[in-house]
What does this fold into?
Amino acid sequence: MKLTISFKNIDHTDSLDSRIKEKSKKLTKYFEGNTNVKWICSAKEGVHISELNLTGPHIEYHAKAQSDNLYKTLDMAISKIEKQIIRKKEKMKNKMHRKKNELYVLDAELAWSDYIENPDEVA
It folds into this structure.
């Protein structure tokens, strides 16, 4: 996983850096391989904003959160991304299970026993 952190109108601190890395590690349980995690943290007029972009092969997620506390916005953004991931994985799981409910005929002779070759003769 490749992690990129950007700050706008906020001073970069080690505690923020470690907190973001800690939160990003939660995403590794959902994905394997090449994923890019990009955090953008900013402040505007006393409101802190955190944006999280998660991209990889065949995936793309985005979450944005704003609050009066930057640490709170980090938690909110991670929870939004996790909800999106879980929702997407459940949809895929349900699609796989729906395909298994197709109708199959196992005995070919039984299947053709109800077939009438000349419907005009019956009437």
About this structure: The chain has a mean pLDDT of 84.
